[in-house]
């Protein structure tokens, strides 16, 4: 008899029940989208206990209320104590139910001090964030991150906030990608509360709701830990939008300045070497580098020091493809350590056009020539590439030795104006030689 009674008692404790919840409401919040959860069943209102209540349970409540989705749940009567009795505890919703009466639960023995509250997205949107802005930067593309949730602005805690998270933030703000992620309120304190903590995005998401985190409104951070970002202020995929050299004897040499979002800045000379200089010269339209300098050899540059510890292999086309410590992560670098380069200049002199002539190189400010001893077609191929040309191609003919002439200059293919502009047999012979074809017969 005692054994039977114990079994029945245990069964009643573990029993998963169902009920008909005809109405639900939220009280004590800033609006109907948030507050203490109150449900109407069996002719009276009551509350839900916070035992084992989670976001899946909150999702079902928000769905019943007609809102897009849940944002967060709150234990211990955060929005104040509800009315009636504490009715149910240990809700076990999957999140897909249309009514919490379809979820498993137990009869509650809780007091109203354990009433659960929730916050829902106040519209039928699926995204929590209604707006995003960046404040405190030099333009709308950078600053402390502020998110608008249900009409209130708040910030993101910088704990574990990185470039992947910044990419998603920038995408939400309408930019292509992030240049850098910042911590410790780099752009100054934001407004409202710190509402999101421990964000961990892969970088491919379109919205922070798709990223992992410790939850909305769960942050204990202060505004000293506000996260910030700098976004790429265009639809370009490359961060560096221009390069120039200042302080040298000509445009081919000087302190390196990089343009990012319309602002010119320099590169820290620490660990700057010939591989890095090769990429810089290539970006500036030169064939290769002659020398790499540090310690502001050509004098200090302008703006901020925006890049440090560049780690190029020398084969990259832009420095975005090189490793580094990150944009704006320059530590103690100052303009006294600015990097500089000297790029190789080459010209073809005395020919019928800029594509042919005597080869002249500029080394340390002096022009000179190349001796023709053993100079052959492979050597000429290298010279042409250095001068910005590649082989000529003939397009649209019936055979490989005929067709429309196209030249590649500085990475772009183009054509040569025809007979009416003076193009004749002598010009054609040069083209044929450039294409590696015979002019005899």
TrEMBL record:
Disulfide partners: 93-103, 157-221, 170-231, 201-211, 312-322
Pfam families in UniProt: SRCR
Tell me which UniProt keywords the record has, alphabetically. Answer: Disulfide bond, Glycoprotein, Repeat, Signal
User: Does the entry feature the keyword Lipid metabolism, yes or no?
Assistant: no
SRCR domain residues: 24-121, 132-232, 243-344, 346-388, 392-441
Q: Which cellular components does GO assign to this protein?
A: membrane
Q: Which SUPFAM superfamilies match?
A: SRCR-like (SSF56487)
Q: What InterPro entries is this protein classified in?
A: SRCR, SRCR-like_dom_sf
Secretion signal span: 1-18
Would you tell me the protein name for this molecule? Deleted in malignant brain tumors 1 protein
Which species expresses this protein natively? Answer: Mytilus edulis
